Structure formats: C-alpha cells, structure tokens
Amino acid sequence: MSFIQGKLPMRLKLIQGFGAVAFGVKDNGFSFFLLIFYNQVLGMDAGLVSLALLIALLVDAVVDPILGNLSDRTYTRWGRRLPWLYAAPIPLAVAWVLLWSPPGGEAPSFVGLVTIAIAVRVLLSACEVPSISLVPEITADYDERTTLFRYRAMGGWIGGLGMMVLAYTVFMPGSEGLLQREGYVAFGIFGAVLMAVSVIGSALGQHALVAHRPAVKPGQFSLKGAFGEITEAFSERAFLIFAAGGMAAYVHQGLNFSLTNYVNLFVWQLSSNQLFFFPLMLFGSVLLMFVTIAPMHRRLGKAHTAALGMIVGTVIGLTPFALLLAGFWPQPGTNASAALFYSFALVGTGLGIVSLVSATSMIAEIVESFEERTGRRAEGSFYSGNWLVQKCATGAGIFMSGQIIGLAQLSTDAQPGDVPASVLRDLVIYYGSAMIILATFAAWWLARFPISREEHEARVNRLAARRAHRAAAPIGEATDADPAAATAGVVPHPK
Fold this sequence. Notes:
Elements: H1 10-19, H2 21-41, H3 46-73, H4 82-87, H5 89-100, H6 110-138, H7 142-171, H8 181-210, E1 216-217, H9 223-234, H10 237-267, H11 272-275, H12 278-300, H13 302-326, H14 335-374, H15 379-408, H16 421-446, H17 453-472, H18 478-481, H19 483-486, E2 491-492
Antiparallel strand pairs: 1-2
C-alpha cells in the first residue's frame, strides 16, 4: 500500500524536490567545471581527466544496481530508504570537498582522481537511488507521481543552475575566474554543505511519513541475487521498451550537453555578457516544464507526452541552425542573434525536459506491474536500472560528440569568429542529423510504452484487493490463495 491516498500536501512536494538538489549540484560540477579545473588549473592532461571521469561513470553504473537492491532489502524500523539518506550525505560532502581541494594543493595521480571521482558518484547514488525510490512508495496515483517527479526535476535544476550562477558571479567571477584555484575551493565547500543539507533535510521532512518497518521482510542480500533481480527487471516488457527509448533519449541528452559549449562559442559566438543569460534561459525551460507537464499527462498520458516532447523539442531546438544554414538568421554574435537563439532554445529545451521527466515517471508504473507478476516490489532495482541505462548512454553521447568534432575538423586552437564556414556547416549538419535520428528512435519506443493510465489504475485496484484478501485469509491459507506470494521469496512481518 502507498503511504498517501489522494492528493499530496504541498509540504511533501517541496521536501521531495529539495532532496534532488544534491543531484543537481553534482551533475553541474561534473558536466561544466571538473574538466577545466583539473586540466587548466591543476595541469592534468585533458585526455587523462576525461578517461578518469569515464572510468568513474562506468564503475558507478555497475554499482548502482547493487545499491538499488541493497536499498530494496534494507529492513529497519525506519523503513527501507531513510537509513541510506542519513548515512551517505556526510561522507558525500567530505568526498566533494576533496574533489575540489586535492590534498597538498597539487594535481592528484590518475588513480587518485579515479578513486575520488568514484567515491563521489557512488555516495551520490547512495542518496539519489533511495530518495527517488520513495516516489512510488509514497503514492500510487498516476498524476501525483508526475507531480513529485516534476518537483524533483525542479529541485535538481535549481541546485545545478544555482551553483553555475554562483560560480560565475561569486566564486570564480571575471574572464580569468575559471582559472583561479581559490574559487574552486569555495565552490566545493559550499556545494558540499548544500548537498548534505538537501539530502538530510529531505529525509527529516519525510521521516514521520516513511519511518516504519516494511510490511514484508526481504531475503538476504547477495551479489548474485542483486544482478539477478536487475536481469529480471530488464526482462519486464515495459522496462525493456522504456530502456530502448530511454537509451536513445539519454544519448541525445549527452550529445547535446557535451556540444553545448562548442555550439555557443563557435556557432553562435556568444559573448561573456550573453553567456550570463544562458543559465537563466535554462531555468526558464525548467519553469516551462513545470507548468506544462501535468496538463500534458492528463491529456496525452506519459508515454505520448514523452514522445511528443522529444520530437517537437528537438525540431524547435534545431530550427535556428536550419535558418542559419539557409541564410535567414541575424549575424551570430549580435544581441539579436543571441536573443532569438535563446527564445528557440528555451522552448526546445523545456520540451526536452518534459520528455525526460515523463520517461522517469513512467518507471514508477512498472513497479506495480512487476509486483503483480512476482509479488515483490523492487523500486530500487528499477531506478538503479534506469541509472545504469542513463550513465552508459551519456557516455555514448559524449563519445559521439568527440567523433562529430573530429569529422567536422574543428581545430584544437579554434577561436570564435575565425572558424571556417565550411567547418561550422559540417559541425551543424552532423550535430543536427544525429539529434534528429536519436530523437526519432527515442520517440518511437517511448510512444509504445504499454502501461496507460487506465491499465495502471486497474492494476492498483487488483493489488489492493489481493492485499485485502491476503490479510483476511487465515494463517496458512494466504499463500495458497495468492499464488504470486508463494514465489515471492518474502516473509510477512509479524504484526
């Protein structure tokens, strides 16, 4: 049974959203600042830094299923998720500070960077996987789950964009700010405190609601069992369809993010003053998602919203590039060009976020489908499976961006305004073609997600009737009356 029936209180929505701030802080740091810090400030080879981050990402992707299974099998008087949300944030904060303040003030060894990057990623996953797994436990309502996910998306983006703005204006201001080591020390300390407060504060805010011993006692943890459950999760038809669409969507996102700085600097030639508005534009995209996703889910359902957002968002986002190639665009670098580009980007990015949040919300419905088939709930396994897909796909997107830059023959010492038109044309064509292909593939699969609102609500009612029947049956007859329970591998907790 879910913890809350009916509408969710605003306080809970805000608390859930606040818990995702930590993920946004980590994602922003890794995506925008870590490479330049270790390469340009500490003097490490950029190729080695990129390789270290890729290794850390792949290790994290493998560890995620273990964390998800451990979270599902945690059995305490505080429930399954809260112990993780209290234990992981402080070590995470310490690791985050060390990432931006290496011991001795010098660049660490390659192994040292790999180690601290893995520690940060794994500890963040130990917070994020249990936190997001609470959503399907809190409510089984189709629309209220969307509400919690949009608040989580808002929290994550606020955390990331807030750190970006503070980096540019407070910690590392000015054209040389990104090359000053002291600013990164303050950046790391502030981010560490914010992440710890976010996770622990969110846990405390939900404590009274979720802190009770689970109704069933899970079996013992084993590595074989953990990966076996992930394999079983991937055998769920709905999850396989989601994974196919989600893989393309996450490659699409990774490619887009990794080429953002190249596009902004070389294609649109945005000045430092114009770039200041870039995080504000992204925040506007998040607000657009926040106000449109719920009505779209009510009208279209999650699957078709995800597909439509992916296709339409990509087309709108690429329209400025098409107009530029066709000669119907203001001179890049001018305020008119920047304003027009941001207008298209705001809508296109907003719809892209709608698509990804919708896809994440769809996973929650797979939980009940799996429960009806097996008699077990495995929120952590499904969401860690999602992280596995996302992280591998993001790495693929980053790899693809490097190939596109190489194919376009963009030189390593390129300067905005001096890149040959033929190079920019090829860069735009390769980038746009890849984005369209990935968006089409993602939308095709996401639209075929088999769990509709009506099917989900009928399943929730069947599961409620099954639980009521099991509770009413005499001891010894409940298992016989419910064949799924006989193979569930769980032990009912004595009342």
